[in-house]
Amino acid sequence: MKVFINLLKDSGRYIVRGTKTYHLWMGTLTFVMLVGALCYGIQIADGLHVTGMTDRVSWGLYISNFTFLVGVAAAAVMLVLPTYILNDVDFKQAVLIGEGMAVAALLMCLAFVVVDIGGPARFWHIIPFIGDFNFPKSLLAWDVLVINGYLLINLTIPLYILIMRYQGKTPNPKIYLPGLIISVFWAVAIHMVTAFLLQGLPARPFWNTGLLGPRFLASAFTAGPALIIIALAMIRKFTDFDIPDKTLRKLGLIITVAAQINLIMLLSELFKEFYFPTHHSESAYYLFFGLEGKHALVPWIRTSIFINVIATVGLFFHKVRNNLRLLYIASGLLFIAIWIEKGFGMIIPGFIPGPWGAIVEYQPTGIEIGVTFGIWAMGAFIFTILARMGIAIELRKIKYKDAEVES
């Protein structure tokens, strides 16, 4: 406990110091979080009617981001698996960065759930032994269990490793390796259970497909590593932490394969929906072509597919994938494409048309957008702190019992 307290003190002193660029970044994130808090305060005071959600489309921008971020959190396994299970040294410098991103993504997931249910006072309903948890019958109870369990794993194991390195000691694999093995399976579980939540709603035929779970995993292992590549690029640029080119190129290979699998599954879904369409295909028609003059999502999904194909085809060529600048651009495009496809392109069409055939479109309001940006800024703020602390310990800028913390 004494070591842990000293670690927090030393890290706190180090985190508040930095370059002008660092302070500008953190100040900008703080401002966006304050704007998001203001928007959330308006939502708390006036109720969910200030959002674009209705009784016809009851999941909107918040749950779209929740679904997407579950995949980002699960993507940390793509660094853990080769590093600690397959003993690939090229990933060792990046694995703690991936774990930090998983923690930030999971906290953002929980934040999006809190704002979606209207307010934190309603959160007690899903707390075991206090609310109506309804485990194991409820799939939502399983989702709460796997997400919080994965968060606990991603907090405790990196913390143990950092505490040991903070003291100049070598972490004992017998202590952390079993937890890492569990985290590999747990990462798959958090996304599959989320997919089961959607698949298990019989009144929403758009989600009733056996490919939903595998598609979730393929898109997660595309967007998550793509975001990690962008984060590692920023770390290489603004810190002294050494991220080998091999690490970035191997991550590029991972997202290339995952993106191709994701496109194949998307093509399979399109064939199923449009080769012999039924009335269950109306949601897909609304998404891709519009329905009865309503076509709010058509530009979004077409843009998503276009940039997804461009980035995936580009990464297929070695010269593009091995050029780090082009890899960064392709990673950013894939991240945006998957966010659209898995957010607006997955959640919203499931409600349109409704079970009785009514077509009620959804558009997020300024309040929803403000809250969403605030939560994303919170995630970036948390990740920056975790990454800066981890890098400082790895570079021995923060040491146990040091009288002076280096700048």
UniProtKB/TrEMBL annotation:
Query: How is the protein disposed in the membrane?
Result: Multi-pass membrane protein
- Record's keyword terms, sorted: Cell membrane, Membrane, Transmembrane, Transmembrane helix
Which residues does UniProt assign to the signal peptide?
none
Q: Where in the cell is it found?
A: Cell membrane
Keyword Isomerase listed: no
**Which InterPro entries does this chain map to?**
DsrP-like (IPR054823), NrfD-like (IPR005614)
Q: Please give the start and end residues of each transmembrane region.
A: 21-43, 63-84, 96-119, 139-163, 175-196, 216-235, 247-267, 297-317, 326-349, 369-391
The UniProt entry's GO CC annotations, sorted and at most eight, read: plasma membrane
- The reply to whether Transmembrane helix figures as a keyword in the UniProt entry is yes
Q: Which family does it belong to?
A: Belongs to the NrfD family.
- The name of this protein is Molybdopterin-containing oxidoreductase family membrane subunit
Q: Which organism is it from?
A: Aureibacter tunicatorum
